[in-house]
Amino acid sequence: MQIDEINGTETLGLLALQAEILESIATSCPRDQVLNQLCHLSEQVVSKCVASVMIYDYSRTYITVVSAPNLPEEAIKILDGTVPGEGMGSCSNAVLLGKPAFIRDVLVDSRWHKVRHIAKKFKIGACWSFPIFVHGKVTGSFAISSFEKRAPSQLHQQLLKISAHLAGIAIERSINDEIMSHSNTAFNNTSEAILVSDIHGTVFRSNKAYHTISGFDVTDTQKFNIFEALVMEEFLIRTVKACLQKKGTWRGEIEARKKSGQSFPALLNISVVNDKRGYPCQYVAVLSDISLLKESEKKLLFLAHHDTLTKLPNRFAFEKILKDTLEKNCTLNSPIAILFIDLDNFKTINDARGHAAGDKFLIQVANRLTNCMRDTDVVARVGGDEFTIMYAYKGVDDLRKTAQRILINLSKLYHVDGNDYYSSASIGIALAPADGETIQSLIKCADTAMYRAKKLGKDQFCFYTKNLTKTLKTRMEMETCLRQSIAKNELFIEYQPLYDSNKNIVSIEALLRWNSPKFGIVPPDLFIKLAEESGLIITIGLWVLENTCIQASKFIDHFPELKISVNLSRFQLKDIFINSLSSILTSTGFDPSRLEFEITESTMLKEFSHNKNLLLKVNQMGIKLSIDDFGTGYSSLSDLKNLPVQSLKIDKSLIDDLPGDAAITNAVVAMGSALGLKVIAEGVESDEQLDSLINAGCDYFQGFLFSKPLSLDQLTQKLKHVNGEPT
């Protein structure tokens, strides 16, 4: 700062002002205190004036007063928020142009024409302003406002220049202090551990997070080499140093050191810091404790490979283990078997007691499976109630004993929420590599064998054979054809008459038939069961009902006492069936009083309350109900009394024993008659059987003795022949 041109006394005065302000700055006085001190000292040099400092806001949009100890509060409020521009005064002009604005008369100078009212209000005569620079950018202005009209002397100009410069130093230091404060705050409050060392590795700074994470205190770190403090493995230290020398930075996962001697997983980011000349001078290391992340990864990995309920490996994990085992050719020395286990009737427990009880039941099943297998065996849950086991067996006998042991363990009594349950399982077994060399083929074979075990009666195991695949393939092909059967007109109806004791036809049973181009005439017991298992029975059942009503309308009106019966599957007994039934009767115009539904005894008893209510609705429509295959479902008298039925049909298995063993048949007929039900005998094939049934009091008869199933045309002729010409 050049002050040579001012006389000695003035020079000493400015030097004293400069020294005092610099001392305040050097002793870290607050910015506003330094600026206020600067204004006071300047006002002592210039008489009849007030000094002020204005600076830009952070957006550099407007300027605001930060120091003006002797300026009226009202004036400060007016000046705050001034947007620099032409005619906005001395400070605005100095900030806008970045050069001094020395105005001797503010009332006539154009640079004040927009704010002259302020000058008049506060009796300002002259205003001199000098721009303040920080880091080479205009940051604000230092101004002296005089209450007299006058131009600044050389002393005044030098004062403004020195004061603006000193104000810039104070503001810059304040900014740097703020940055340093924020930096220190971040350094000491960040969750990442930070270590700083010289280029030789001696640690001279560390933050709170490092001490918290590692357990080392400040005195400990001062004794450390930064690499030894962070990394436990010697070979990794060499790797990190080599990378720092080559690239200047290294990032990776490490096992970081703790004071306790233990370690913790951490992510380390260490870099070289260069000085102004570009030479390495420091290392800065940022260390993140990733213990929780690793724990989360571990949990996620477990969840990805295990069933959340039973904690057993899931399908993905099981298939991976099986794949790895097959790839290692372990089957050469220790053959592998896949056991596919499906619980029998688990849905009953789930539906009766709810999913919470079902879950507890499955946990017990998982525990039993685990407990009866070896540690080397792999037990997994691959579906709702499906489990698989990979078992290294010693021979077929060993495998049979293991499968039997599983069945015995799973069939023992279960206790869940104070209730007792019995259950069983069906097991399918496939052998590697005999039955397949891939995981998909082996599991599919075991699943196929399990399905066969269920078909054979459940609670047993079954080995896979190639014939099972052939059977399954045939079944799938047959199901595909059955789905297309209605559209391709492959289904048709035959009719078998029912006779009274006078050999008159009293009713006609509609029987569904399927003539498949690929499979020929398919037996009803085969494709009806397939329709039930595949869900096609709903659509097919409605087709049978509608077409029976349409075809029967052609002849039934001519025989007033004649009725038509149609078989119903248990899968049709749903609320929606009533709506469909009403629609069919309405569209075909068929009289419901001439219609009868035959439902098996076991279906009647299943879900008794629901089925009873639904069948009552059917009765209310005028449709009669008959129990089919009676004698095989173990109905009690109370069940029969409560069922909304009008007749029962004795199962053919009881008829076959006639006339030799007539006791059971006679009892069934007597029971039905006592309950007020009409009793029908099906499968009558001989005169001896007929005589025995008539003597027992049976009402109606059906079988090959009278007639085989007939086409519609054949039935029409039969009715004319037996019952006479239609009326």
Question: Can you offer a commentary on this structure?
Answer:
- The chain is of the alpha+beta class and 727 residues long.
- The protein folds into 4 domains: 8-182, GAF domain (Beta-Lactamase); 190-294, Beta-Lactamase (2-Layer Sandwich), CATH 3.30.450; 307-464, Alpha-Beta Plaits (2-Layer Sandwich), CATH 3.30.70; 480-723, EAL domain (TIM Barrel, Alpha-Beta Barrel).
- The protein has 27 helices and 26 strands.
- Strands 18-19-21-22-23-24-25-26 form an 8-stranded mixed β-barrel, surrounded by 4 helices. The protein has a 5-stranded antiparallel beta sheet with strand order 2-1-5-4-3, sandwiched between helices.
- Strand 6 and strand 7 (203-206) form a beta hairpin.
- Helix 1 (8-26) runs parallel beside helix 6 (154-189).
- The radius of gyration is 50 Å and the shape is elongated.
- The chain starts with 7 loop residues before the first helix and ends with a helix.
CATH superfamily of the largest domain: EAL domain
How many strands, what sense, and barrel or not for the largest sheet?
8 strands, mixed, barrel
Please, how many helices? Answer: 27
Any idea of the CATH topology of the largest domain? Answer: TIM Barrel
CATH class of the largest domain: Alpha Beta
Whole-number total of structural domains: 4
State the share of residues found in helices, binned by percent.
40-55%
Set down the secondary structure blueprint.
Blueprint: H1 8-26, H2 31-45, E1 49-56, E2 63-67, H3 73-79, H4 90-97, E3 101-103, H5 116-122, E4 126-134, E5 137-146, H6 154-189, E6 193-198, E7 203-206, H7 208-214, H8 218-221, H9 226-230, H10 234-247, E8 249-257, E9 263-274, E10 280-289, H11 291-305, H12 315-327, E11 336-344, H13 346-353, H14 355-371, E12 378-381, E13 386-392, H15 396-410, E14 414-416, E15 419-421, E16 424-432, H16 439-455, E17 461-463, H17 466-483, E18 491-500, E19 505-516, E20 520-522, H18 524-534, H19 537-552, E21 563-567, H20 575-588, E22 595-600, H21 601-605, H22 608-620, E23 624-630, H23 637-642, E24 647-650, H24 652-655, H25 663-674, E25 678-681, H26 687-696, E26 700-701, H27 712-723
Helix pairs in contact: 1-2, 1-6, 2-6, 13-14, 17-18, 19-20
